[in-house]
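Need a sequence for this fold. Nothing fancy.
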C-alpha cells in the first residue's frame, strides 16, 4: 500500500517539499533538543544496485545503517535496490524530482543529462582512488561537483570508490588494436567513448542484465568493476578471457545524491551525520574492494580463468585515443570545460608527485 502511494505520488509529480513533509513525523514524546532536534525523518534511498550487491550495494546499506545508528534513529534511511522504486539508471532523476530524498549510483550513468558528471567519476588512464579523493576533498573538486548538480536540486557527496578496475571479460581475443573493430561491449562513461573511437559498439546496461547479454552473445565483452564484483555476477561463466589492466577506470567514485529541498529540512547535526557516514563509506568501500578483489582473483585463477594483459601497443593506442576523447568531451559542454580545466591541472600535479615517489616504490617493491 505504501509503495503504491509512493508510486502514485511520483506519477503526479508531487513536489519534493510536500513529499518530505509526509515522511517527517513530529516525535512529540521525545525529549526537547537543541533546534529542530526532536523530529524523526524517514527517508528513501534509491540505488543503481541489485539488493545487497557486494562492494557497492553493501556500501549503500552500510551508509543507511551508519546514519540510523549515529542519529539514534532520528534519520531512518530505507535502501531500495535497482528497480524497486526506479530503474538503476534513473536514480539521479528520482532524487532531482523528489521521488526519493537520497540516491546512490555512479555519476557517469547520467552523462546524457549532466555531461560534466563523468569527471567526478572515472577518467580513462586517469586518477586512482587516492588521487580522485585528494582532488575532491582537498583540491576543489567537491565545490565544482556541488555547483554542477545545484541546478538539478541535488547535493552530491563522494560515497565509495572501487580503486583500479579490470579491463573486463571478453569472448574475443585482443591481440592488436584492430580487434576492437566491431566489438560489442558494455562499458559506460568516457571509456565507452574511447571504445567507440576504436571501432567498437558500446552499450550501457545495469548490473542485472550483463550476464545474460554476455552469455547469449548480445555483447562480445563487458567490463564491470573488478574480480570481487565480477565473480558475484558470474561473468567468468560467460566469457573466455579476463583482461587487465583497467585502463578505462583506474577508479570509479560513486555518489550519494541528496535532494536539496529535503536536505534543508534536516537539522545541522543530522546533516553532519550524513556527511560523516558518506565519508566513512567512501573509504570503507575502497578497503573492501582492495581486500576482496585480491581474494576473488585468487579463486578465479584457481578455477582456471584465463587472465591476460592487454598488449602494450593496444594500451598505448587506447591512451592516445583516451586523451583526445576526454578533451573533446570536456570541450563539448561549457560546464565540463570549466571542471576539466581545473581538474586536469590539479591531476597533473598529483601525477608528477606519484611518478616521483609512489611509482618508484611500486617498481622496486614488486
Ligand atoms: Ca567499470
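Here you go.
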Amino acid at each position: 500500500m505504501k509503495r503504491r502511494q509512493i508510486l502514485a505520488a511520483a506519477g503526479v509529480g508531487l513536489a519534493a517539499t510536500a513529499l518530505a513533509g509526509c515522511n517527517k513525523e513530529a516525535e512529540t514524546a521525545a525529549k526537547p533538543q537543541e533546534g529542530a532536534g526532536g523530529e524523526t525523518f524517514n527517508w528513501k534511498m534509491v540505488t543503481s544496485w541489485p539488493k545487497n550487491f557486494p562492494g557497492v550495494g553493501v556500501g549503500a546499506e552500510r551508509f543507511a545503517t551508519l546514519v540510523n545508528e549515529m542519529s539514534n534513529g532520528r534519520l531512518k534511511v530505507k535502501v531500495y535496490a535497482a528497480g524497486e522504486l526506479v530503474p538503476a539508471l534513473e536514480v539521479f532523476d528520482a532524487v532531482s524530482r523528489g521521488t526519493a530524498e537520497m540516491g546512490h549510483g555512479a555519476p557517469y550513468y547520467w552523462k546524457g543529462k549532466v555531461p560534466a558528471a563523468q569527471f567526478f567519476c572515472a577518467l580513462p588512464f586517469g586518477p586512482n582512488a587516492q588521487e580522485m579523493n585528494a582532488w575532491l576533498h582537498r583540491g576543489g573538486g567537491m565545490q565544482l561537483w556541488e555547483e554542477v548538480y545545484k541546478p538539478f536540486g541535488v547535493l552530491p557527496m563522494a560515497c565509495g570508490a572501487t580503486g583500479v578496475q579490470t579491463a573486463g571479460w571478453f569472448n574475443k581475443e585482443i591481440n592488436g588494436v584492430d580487434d576492437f573493430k566491431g566489438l560489442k561491449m558494455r562499458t559506460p562513461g568516457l571509456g565507452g567513448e574511447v571504445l567507440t573511437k576504436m571501432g567498437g559498439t558500446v552499450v550501457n546496461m545495469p548490473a542485472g542484465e550483463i550476464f545474460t547479454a554476455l552469455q547469449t552473445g548480445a555483447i562480445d565483452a563487458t567490463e564491470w568493476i573488478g574480480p570481487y564484483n565480477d565473480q558475484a555476477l558470474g561473468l567468468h561463466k560467460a566469457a573466455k578471457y579476463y583482461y587487465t589492466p583497467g585502463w578505462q577506470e583506474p577508479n570509479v567514485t560513486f555518489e550519494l545524491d541528496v535532494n536539496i529541498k529535503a536536505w534543508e529540512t534536516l537539522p545541522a547535526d543530522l546533516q553532519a551525520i550524513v556527511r560523516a557516514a558518506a565519508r566513512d563509506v567512501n573509504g570503507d568501500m575502497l578497503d573492501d574492494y582492495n581486500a576482496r578483489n585480491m581474494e576473488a582473483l585468487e579463486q578465479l585463477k584457481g578455477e582456471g580463468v584465463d587472465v591476460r594483459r592487454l598488449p602494450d601497443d593496444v594500451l598505448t593506442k587506447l591512451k592516445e585515443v583516451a586523451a583526445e576523447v576526454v578533451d573533446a568531451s570536456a570541450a563539448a559542454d561549457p560546464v565540463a570545460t570549466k571542471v576539466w580545466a581545473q581538474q586536469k591541472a590539479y591531476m597533473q600535479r598529483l601525477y608528477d608527485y606519484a611518478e616521483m615517489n609512489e611509482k618508484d616504490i611500486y617498481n622496486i617493491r614488486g
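For context: Residues 165, 223-225, 249, 252 surround calcium ion (CB under 6 Å).
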